[in-house]
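Example 9 (inverse folding). The structure is encoded as follows.
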């Protein structure tokens, strides 16, 4: 468990560390959203069908999942400051490889290493965030994740500009890589210098204990909802609501906007009402939002429902990561990796599960089942003992 306190021997004011870690979250989010914004362009360049593209895109979560145990071990052994710098540097350096890939096999390889670097940055940056939260002595984790969400909007806006001006993905990616690497060099001196005592003999992977497993299940259920919204919100608006072409993206935009906004109010809400109540309310909002979209299959109520889902998922992962980083049984990096391994499986399983169930029944039935995951979040929040 991290043991920072305001009167520790940190050389900079605590706000400096908070800004530096927030910047690291933004830089990571900018890398991801830059790639996401140019996926249609890359699909067109390589002549990939929707089915082929879906298979190719699994390379990123595959690389992330494979690297989860290794990332936790490296953070435990070498510290999150070094791994944050290294992870972000590699994440940015691998971004242009995606633009250089001129065949499907090369793109697959590039996406796997991109996913590996993504997760190395993710575990180390969240470990830094746990340390800063300990310095402040209150919940601030959600605001860090809010910066990641804001970077998503920034990356999408920059991507739209690049596409409209016919800038190639490679030149676009090179520009953003330079920005991210420059940002990493700027924030490096202001990251927390150390975590909990490093573990030279830390295991590469450990099975989570009961408390961490419950946290992992919380993340699993919420990320199942989140992954569904990322991949299927547009399809739901098009095929179930029969929305006009110009309105197909409204549901996803509504979800993303409230998820980002929710992360900037979640810390205040958590400090006022407690982590357990916040998690319970989050799960109920996820379930209610999805139920609205299913019971009232038209654009306005579904949009409101998707906004509720975004608000619900906004605080779950930050709170779960914060609780995992305070584990008393293992180092923050290893604990985060263990919880992420369980939780990230939900993000992976959600979209294909929706497709499988929809093929047998319908998309409305699929979304009804995902709503149950929101109720599971509310139920698990009490059992997980998150205070």
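The amino acid assigned to each position is listed next.
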């Amino acid at each position: 468990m991290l043991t920072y306190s305001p009167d520790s021997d940190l050389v900079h004011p605590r706000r400096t560390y908070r800004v530096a870690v927030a910047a690291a979250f933004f830089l990571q989010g900018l890398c991801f959203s830059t790639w996401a914004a140019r996926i249609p362009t890359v699909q067109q360049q390589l002549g990939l069908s929707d089915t082929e593209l879906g298979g190719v895109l699994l390379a990123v979560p595959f690389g992330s999942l494979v690297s989860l145990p290794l990332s936790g071990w490296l953070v435990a052994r070498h510290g999150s400051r070094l791994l944050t710098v290294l992870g972000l540097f590699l994440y940015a350096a691998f971004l242009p490889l995606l633009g250089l890939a001129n065949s499907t096999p090369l793109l697959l390889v590039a996406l796997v290493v991109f996913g590996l670097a993504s997760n190395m940055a993710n575990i180390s940056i969240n470990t830094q965030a746990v340390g800063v939260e300990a310095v402040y002595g209150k919940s601030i984790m959600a605001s860090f994740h809010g910066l990641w969400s804001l970077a998503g909007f920034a990356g999408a806006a920059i991507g739209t500009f690049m596409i409209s001006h016919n800038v190639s993905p490679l030149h676009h990616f090179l520009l953003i890589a330079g920005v991210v690497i420059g940002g990493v060099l700027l924030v490096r001196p202001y990251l927390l210098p150390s975590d909990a005592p490093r573990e030279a003999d830390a295991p590469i992977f450990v099975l989570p204990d009961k408390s961490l497993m419950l946290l992992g299940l919380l993340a699993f259920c919420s990320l199942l909802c989140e992954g569904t919204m990322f991949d299927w919100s547009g399809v739901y608006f098009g095929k179930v609501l029969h929305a006009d072409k110009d309105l197909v993206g409204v549901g996803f935009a509504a979800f993303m906007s409230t998820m980002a906004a929710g992360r900037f109010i979640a810390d205040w809400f958590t400090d006022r009402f407690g982590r357990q109540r916040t998690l319970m309310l989050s799960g109920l909002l996820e379930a209610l939002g999805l139920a609205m979209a299913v019971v009232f299959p038209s654009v306005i109520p579904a949009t409101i429902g998707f906004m509720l889902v975004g608000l619900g998922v906004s605080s779950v992962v930050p709170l779960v990561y914060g609780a995992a980083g305070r584990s008393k049984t293992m180092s923050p990096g290893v604990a985060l990796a263990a919880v992420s391994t369980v939780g990230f499986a939900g993000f992976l399983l959600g979209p294909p599960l929706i497709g499988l169930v929809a093929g047998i029944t319908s998309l409305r039935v699929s979304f009804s089942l995902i709503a149950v995951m929101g109720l599971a979040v509310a139920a698990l929040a009490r059992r997980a003992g998150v205070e």
